[in-house]
Amino acid sequence: MLRINEFKVENLSSGCVTDNPAPVFSFSMISSEKNVLLKKAVLSVNNWMEEFRQQTGIVYNGPKLTPFTRYLATLEITDNYGETASTSLEFETGFVGKEWNASWITDGAYQFKERKKSPRPMTFKKDFFIKGEIRQARIYSTAFGIYELELNGKKMGNDYFAPGYTSYKHQLQYQMYDITEELRKQNQLVAVVGGGWAAGSYTYKRMNRIYAKRQAFLGEIHILYKDGTQEIISTDETWQVTENGNFREAEFYDGEVYDATVNLEKASFHNASIEKVKIRPQLLAQYGSLVKAHEQFEPISCQISPSGMLIYDFGQNMAGVIQADIQGRAGERIVFHHAEVLLDGELYTKPLRSARQQAVYICKEGEQKYSPRMTYMGFRYVGVSGIPVDRIKLKAVALYSDLPENGEFSCSEPMLDKLQSCIEWSAKSNFVDIPTDCPQRDERLGWTGDIALFAPTAAYNFDMSRFFDKWLKDMRAEQNQGGGIPMIVPMVKIPGQFEMMFPLAADHWGDACILVPWAEYKARGDIELLRKMYPSMKKYIKACKFWAGLFSTPKNKRIWKLLFHYGDWCAPDMGYKDWMKRGKWTGTACLAHSSGIVSEIAGVLGETEEAEEYMKLSQETARAYRNILMDENCHIKGGDFQTAFVLPLYYNMLSGNDKKKTAANLVNLIRDNNYNIKTGFPGTPYVLFALADNGYLEDAYKMLLTDTCPSWLYEVKAGATTMWERWDALREDGSCNLGEDNGSGGMVSFNHYANGAVGDFFYRRILGIEATEGGYKTFRIAPQPGGGLSWAKGNVNTPYGRIRVSWTIENGRFKLEIEVPAGTRCEIILPSGRKVTEGSGSYSYEELLG
């Protein structure tokens, strides 16, 4: 029997509001038959109908979509057995380019000029009456800052930090909230707007007013009455505003102050002012994944610290907020302090640098609940002062973007399962509207290098489609005319740092414009994303090629050492200047790799001549690396280091004996170093692949399973629940490494996902799941058991359905069980080298291990 499993528009199965004039549809199907393929799909949207042969990337090209309209999309499919199935979904349009009636409003009397501080939150309100029976009512709203809406005392939506963080100069999201069931005869809408990213204190330089001189709010209430008449209530000077609402302070770094004793009905309001905003971004219906509340945690312990503070341990490092049930007394001031680690029984806050990470709650009388709404913290431990333990109950709530979980991995080694959990939780903690570097200290920036290297692992574990699409839209907007990509996206120019003032071509960081969309295409098959990113990729490669050739002899024109590189960033036992000195190797290898990927992308897009040009560049650069940066025995001129061997091996830059020599040199380095990691950010994701794919599988497993510092399992053994920025963030003596010995003082985070890129190896080599065509239309399952593992299992949800893999080893026999989704084909490679190709269905294989 055939049925449609998932049917999506704009990567959503429900709740889609879009301004895209050509929304994109996709679906997956399930059947009890084997070798099922799609014969045809018929998509209908209102009166438009078209037949397709694909399951992904189905682009609507019917009549022009009109604003504020609900559309019904119906899908009917037929498979190669003649079986049929059908389903439908609804989506709505937003403004679709229509001008807003509303004006931006603010408090014109509030002249915020303090440096390194965030503005006081503004509270807007509007009282309005309903004129008749309602058929439908919507609020469309956005802000410079972050905002919360309440209608008649009830919060609208379940998101945090709307409208989200975008490249404000270019685009700004707006939200739609359905209020049809919430309206009464007399109504009051309240909007609280904090400084957020737009006007609040942000970056490690504590800059403020980066995008706006103060907060501003924009909104329209659209009411459709049953008699067919319409009413629009827009933000204007009749709205009221105050800075004396319940939210007294709000900032991502320092936290929030909330005064429950404030009665808004008695607060001093005055008329709002029309704000002349200094930038005019395109307003677009929400296309990203806003932050929402997810897992809740009860404390695993509550102790009194030597200083007398209550210390709650939630057992999991995370990004999020507390939820408190309080038996309070009017005016009582409770302070919630947050930290990732304890030192001598107290919260250790030095790694937070200038971030206070505090929530302050001023109680009203009696039973009450409190949870911050205008900030979030990175923490495992919460210290509470100002109330005794018997009058408060505490929970922790994880906050991260609304990303569907996409994959699962587990195996017979419990420490690897704990490592997988660390990887997932570091990702969750840093996917807070943008891909941040860390969720706790005074940073939380969209560093491009971290996500460039982690993107494949992210795409295995989560459906990143809307998250990446939003962030990459900002990247395209921020790229300069010379092709440079900002080190952080959205871009913030940080005074005093050259590399942060201008978008640059910098290896692995700038290559996010290639590596992230390529990883997403492999996972989701979204060719439209490649089309949108391809011009940016070409401009970026042109810039890399320019800097590699500048001031170089013809012989050295592909050796990329200018203009700026982070090099072997965060390699153990070195300082940042030494990391950067390795930029010649990381940059040249990256140019070879990325130009090769762009060649593949050009081929996918049908740009045959350009594909050949980029492949030629890739090959020339690979030869230059081999001939100029390595000696005749494939050792590194200037001294061997792990990353310099890992990159050309994984990037397939070598062949024949050169490959064998380089692999041997790498494995000797690793053995001599007792299987400890010596790679920085660029090499760490690939070191196990470089070993396993070149004849050293057991060495790869030994490195993975090593638990002395520096190693992945050292962190697990030390009690980590997330990945660390430094391998020795906690030293073996229990002290914290703040980087005083290498010139990067204060740079330590216990929730930094970059080194979690090893998770890619779990899926692609231990389970053996790897796409051979975009979106897994064709894929490979080729498990590589080793390291004493007796079993592993997992799954990956693809656009075509879920791939499942489970293998066991018992009495020397290897048994593999797999599920192949409908509409796909899979090549299975067993450890003996035996190959089988199958269509959809469930299969088992067994063989004797050699």
Verbal overview:
The protein is an alpha+beta fold and 850 residues long. Among the domains are: 92 residues, Immunoglobulin-like, CATH 2.60.40; 184 residues, Jelly Rolls (Sandwich), CATH 2.60.120.260; 110 residues, Jelly Rolls; 78 residues, Maltose phosphorylase, domain 3 (Sandwich). The protein is built from 16 helices and 45 strands. The strands form ten sheets. Strands 14, 20, 21, 25, 26, 27, 28, 31, 32, 33 and 34 form an eleven-stranded mixed sheet that branches. Strands 13-12-16-10-19-22 form a six-stranded antiparallel sheet. A hairpin with a 4-residue loop joins strand 17 and strand 18.
Structure characteristics:
alpha+beta; Immunoglobulin-like; Jelly Rolls; six-stranded antiparallel beta sheet; 16 helices; globular
In short:
Among the domains are: 2-93, Immunoglobulin-like (Sandwich), CATH 2.60.40.10; 105-288, Jelly Rolls (Sandwich), CATH 2.60.120.260; 292-401, Galactose-binding domain-like (Jelly Rolls, Sandwich), CATH 2.60.120; 771-848, Maltose phosphorylase, domain 3 (Sandwich), CATH 2.60.420.10. A hairpin with a 5-residue loop joins strand 26 (301-304) and strand 27. 23% of the residues lie in helices and 31% in strands.
